[in-house]
Amino acid sequence: MPSRSDATVDYALIGGGIMSATLAILLTELDPDASVHVYERLLEPAQESSDPWRNAGTGHAALCELNYTPERPDGSIDITKAIAINEQFKASRELWDFLAGAGLLPADTPFVSPVPHMNLVIGAENVDYLRRRHAALTAHPNFADMEYTTDPAVIAEWAPLLMEGRDGADPVAATRSPEGTDVDFGSLTRAMFEAAKQRGVVVHTSVEVSAVRRSSRGWDLKVRDSRWNPLGERSRARARFVFVGAGGGALRLLQSTRIPEVRGFAGFPISGQFLRTFDPALVARHRAKVYGKADGGAPPMSVPHLDTRVVDGRTALMFGPFAGFSVKFLRFGSPLDAFRTIRPANLLPMLAVARDNLGLVKYLVTELLATPSAKLRSLQKFFPGAERAGWTLITAGQRVQMIKPDPKRTGALQFGTEVITSADGSVAGLLGASPGASTAAYAMAQVVERCFGADRPEWVERLREIMPSLARADADPHDAKPAGPV
């Protein structure tokens, strides 16, 4: 529990997920003599979005995520975001390999499983798009191994369940990237915290930070310890630097700092559900993460996919997500979460988003009204032979999409992640969702560079030694050569 004394720690990290775990281990590498404290409100780290059953476990590398490769008006495929995301995920792999080499993570990286990433599309228009996407991506060395086919027999060889019982009335196409991965972010997060603790990091659990206020000696954290009594013992912690990596709880805590950089931001919560099966007969015949195309009005994070998942050594299949709505901002949050973040400065952005995203509202209403039979029909678009028996509907994590102030439109709904830093570099936070955990190393390197890079350029250089992909991920996307119409 934080002390009641006026002792000031160097770095306070709020939230026990993959972001704080990554930043904690980076800080021990860059500033080994500093004090680093982590504050997690639940009993253990990695119980919210970093829990393996609260996310899809995809090692997001833009191999199968069609929303990272939009079509331009002239018919060309824009691959700039795909290249950046791919390099960002490579940075995460480089960090994990570095930690394994240093003996801080298991050498066999058991939390990463090789699982090919695939796309499956149906219909002539979608087949043509996937063909052009494949041609554009494979022109870049990062995607040179991606395969493409319109042959149902080849698709059946790659992933048998996709073609069993399919009537063949519509043309189909698929891509396959053998280097794809499934990641158990829960075990990874816990392993990284254990490594950080070996280096002196203090991890407080069952301790909730309710507010962060600036003081003459840094930042004061109002904390509540819920271990000893239902109301919790209240006290205070003090830090020179604060990182808010609290998932859906980050917005309210950043608002409490009153830094102008977060003014006007709001959140839009979307929950998710998946169908899951451990049926060994099905699991044995599907080894892939297969992404399709989102329905009209659906957010990018709701792209349907049929996934192999490996959690604690046990393999399952998951299909989804099916979107839901809750005013909670955290899976283990409060129904008041959304209302607590409403401010005069973000009312107009919220209203503008409601005005401009009627398609999303219609999609959410349709999803909320979907019956079990409708969910089964969605699964059968991927796996025509699917039967209801053996599949269980599970509730996954709660995601809070950013509503970002936009001078031209008043507000805009964002589906990525964004690092927020104060002008003086003493506080930082992360807002948004996908690609999230997969790009944690890149996001936390951004925190280090923005907050400390001017005074400690050697830290930035050290990070790029550990993760060479950081430099390529930071490259100007306009330097990438666009692929023309194919």
Strand content: 25-35%
Round the Cα radius of gyration to an integer and report it: 22 Å
Please state the average pLDDT score: 89
Beta strands, count: 19
| CATH class division | Alpha Beta
Question: What is the CATH-assigned architecture?
Answer: 3-Layer(bba) Sandwich
What would you call the quaternary organization? single chain
Number of DSSP helices?
Answer: 14
Q: What share of residues is helical?
A: 25-40%
* Biggest sheet record: 9 strands, mixed
- Structurally, the number of domains stands at 1
EC number: 1.1.5.4
Cofactor: FAD
Catalytic activity: (S)-malate + a quinone = a quinol + oxaloacetate
Protein name: Probable malate:quinone oxidoreductase
Task: Describe the model.
Its EC number is 1.1.5.4. It holds the Pfam family Mqo. The chain is of the alpha+beta class and 486 residues long. The chain is 31% helix and 26% strand. It has 14 helices and 19 strands. A hairpin with a 7-residue loop joins strand 10 and strand 11. Helix 1 packs parallel to helix 5, helix 2 packs across helix 12 and helix 12 packs antiparallel against helix 13. It is globular, with a radius of gyration of 22 Å. The N terminus and C terminus are likely disordered.
